[in-house]
């Protein structure tokens, strides 16, 4: 009986030990799992609302647009007289310079004629001698061949004197009009001169106009005779009118002159009392086209691609392309003839 009880007690102890060992093993396993590296959590960033696109757009409205030609001009005389020698020679003296005022009859220049003065004085004596001889012959009653020979001597000396005087006069350039020397060649005494080459030009300061010389004839092809001109000289503003443009310039038959006329504008100042000084610079403006109460947008709003002309307009939260027909175009603005209406918003291509 006691053996049986002892045996049961041992069995109970062994069972308890097994259960305790099992519990310890489970606890060990659980604690070991906590030592393993844990998987990192992937946290998504918060959603941010995208910023709205900034659109540089303007409201379509009606305005005035004007295309103007602007350029520089110079005050010149409309009446100019060039002075030149018909024969070549050497300059004795040039008595004027550019900008000088002269009066009709003033001596402008002289050619060096060598000993012409001496020869003229000698010829005066020869002429006087022939006159005395002829007068004496007539007083003594000579006639016939003897008298005729003395008459011939006098005629010969007179012809010589006339030729020398003509040569002497041709050596002098005399001002035919009063005015201002607008051009003077740079010459010194002894320099050679070619015949028919202008030495100086006299301009009448009472007959002034403006002249514009274009670098490219295409820039002034649209300008016509009688177009009004806004003229500015210094701080003074005047009114003017086109009196000659390339479209109505006369054909001269001279290729160089005709070619030059394709680049010239002549303008008369119509304002009474205008102060025009020869050689002064002026600014001119000529209206070529002007439209009032039309749709006008900045030029940066107009787009072209492969022959297509269009604009982008704001349509809600998006852009829409609209084909347009442009009209007058300036350096900053453009007229839209067809395709836009007031109230639309055009996106600028800045």
From TrEMBL:
Subcellular location: Cell envelope
Chief place where the protein resides: other
Taxonomic placement: Bacteria, Bacillati, Bacillota, Bacilli, Bacillales
Organism: Paenibacillus taihuensis
Entry's Gene Ontology molecular function annotations: efflux transmembrane transporter activity
Domain Multidrug resistance protein MdtA-like C-terminal permuted SH3: 293-348
Positions of the Multidrug resistance protein MdtA-like barrel-sandwich hybrid domain: 88-186
GO cellular component annotations of the record: efflux pump complex
Pfam (any one): RND-MFP_C
SUPFAM superfamilies to which the protein is assigned, alphabetical: HlyD-like secretion proteins
Key words of the record: Transport
UniProt family annotation: Belongs to the membrane fusion protein (MFP) (TC 8.A.1) family.
Full protein name: RND family efflux transporter MFP subunit
The keyword Transport belongs to this UniProt entry's keyword annotation: yes
Coiled coil: none
């Amino acid at each position: 009986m006691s053996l049986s009880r002892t045996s049961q007690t041992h069995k109970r102890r062994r069972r308890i030990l097994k259960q305790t060992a099992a519990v310890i093993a489970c606890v060990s396993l659980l604690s070991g799992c906590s030592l393993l590296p844990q998987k990192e959590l992937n946290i998504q960033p918060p959603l941010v609302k995208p910023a709205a696109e900034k659109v540089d757009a303007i409201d379509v409205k009606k305005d005035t647009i004007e295309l103007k030609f602007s350029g520089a001009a110079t005050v010149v005389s409309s009446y100019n007289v060039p002075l030149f020698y018909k024969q070549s020679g050497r300059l004795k003296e040039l008595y004027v310079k550019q900008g000088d005022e002269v009066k009709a009859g003033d001596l402008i220049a002289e050619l060096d004629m060598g000993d012409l003065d001496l020869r003229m004085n000698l010829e005066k004596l020869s002429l006087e001698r022939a006159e005395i001889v002829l007068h004496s012959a007539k007083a003594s009653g000579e006639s016939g061949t003897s008298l005729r020979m003395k008459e011939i001597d006098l005629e010969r000396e007179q012809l010589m004197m006339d030729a020398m005087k003509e040569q002497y006069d041709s050596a002098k350039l005399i001002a035919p009009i009063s005015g201002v020397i607008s051009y003077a060649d740079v010459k010194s005494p002894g320099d050679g001169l070619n015949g028919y080459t202008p030495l100086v030009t006299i301009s009448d300061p009472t007959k002034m106009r403006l002249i514009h010389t274009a670098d490219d004839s295409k820039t002034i092809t649209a300008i016509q005779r009688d177009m009004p001109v806004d003229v500015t000289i210094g701080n003074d503003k005047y009114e003017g009118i086109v009196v000659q443009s390339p479209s109505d310039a006369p054909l001269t038959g001279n290729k160089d002159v005709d070619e030059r006329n394709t680049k010239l504008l002549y303008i008369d100042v119509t304002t009474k009392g205008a102060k025009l000084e020869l050689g002064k610079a002026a600014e001119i403006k000529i209206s070529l086209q002007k439209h009032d109460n039309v749709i006008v947008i900045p030029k940066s709003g107009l787009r072209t691609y492969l022959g297509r002309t269009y604009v982008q307009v704001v349509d809600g939260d998006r852009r829409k392309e609209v084909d347009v027909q442009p009209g007058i175009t300036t350096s900053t603005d453009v007229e839209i003839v067809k395709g836009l209406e007031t109230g639309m918003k055009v996106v600028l291509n800045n």
